[in-house]
Predict the structure of TetR/AcrR family transcriptional regulator.
Amino acid sequence: MTDAKPGTLRPGGRTARVRAAVLKAAGDALAESGFNELDLAEIARRAEVGKTTVYRRWSTPAGLVADLLADMAEQSLPRTETGTLDGDLRANARLVAKTLRDPRQGPLFKAVIAAATCDAEAAAALHRFYATRIAEWAPCAQQAVERGDLPTGTDPHEVIRAVSAPLYYRLLATGEPLDEAAADQAAAAAAAAARAGAYT
């Protein structure tokens, strides 16, 4: 088996299948027990692959988390285009809320964020993940600027961050419901602030 980096080989090959099995096992383990309990030997056992393969390819738990986040970014649903700023931001907020309240994804994100607070490699991977997702959705705010719905000079990335921030606050700090009402409120607040020029 080749030593190429994860995700760089042809899809459908044995390497891709091994990677998928290992990343699923890692995601399950993170959701169940958190980053501190992430053990490469246990991941190999869960994924039914050799320990040598896992250690050679991912080296550390943080390296495994980094690849898991890269895969999650690749698998994320594409941006919804409704034709209006309010509709687009609401679609974004509802997608974020749905992901965070998912019985597996919510705990998984908590574990990854916790890992990022104590490991530089995990933090860098988390930053790349969110940069990818924000870049995916930023065009909806840029299009609103071009339509004249937002002030010239609005930073579209800040608008998207403003949509997600209160939802992550609920996940990590308050434990309040992550329902559609919360999502819609976050989207409406971000849209109102953007129209008022808060993100120029």
